[in-house]
Amino acid sequence: MELRRFNPKGVDTFREALSVCRDNPEADIPAEMLTSNDLTTLVAPDLHVEPVSFKTKRDAAVYFHKKFVDLPKQTLLEDSGLWSWLSLFYFEVVCPRLNGLRKIRNDYTYVYEAKSMRHFYRHLLFVSWRILDSLPKRSPTASG
Predict the structure, then answer these.
(1) pTM of this structure
(2) What percent of the chain has pLDDT above 70?
């Protein structure tokens, strides 16, 4: 799928969908949000992501490092829409169903809050990428 980012309306809609799922653990977040021109924009340069089931956080970090080599680092550090969109794209990985139900955590687990000193590092996908980016030799091995 072409890599996209949520615009502000998309981020708000994603937050609303998380709230609905939090109240009703059987509910689904509409996948149409991923490609909605009203909620998202394409990332330039053109990049594609594939549905991958990461076994570890390091697997996710390595995947994103390879995929995002052509994106400016500052974009990756600040782009709430991109990381939030990725959370929805990989929602089955970051928030899997157990016995048919999802346990939705706090919004900042899925919605990247780049400007929040209290929350930016709690985003599941961003923090994996950031640790590998900052400490590539100290990052845990794929088995750890």
Answers:
(1) 0.87
(2) 86
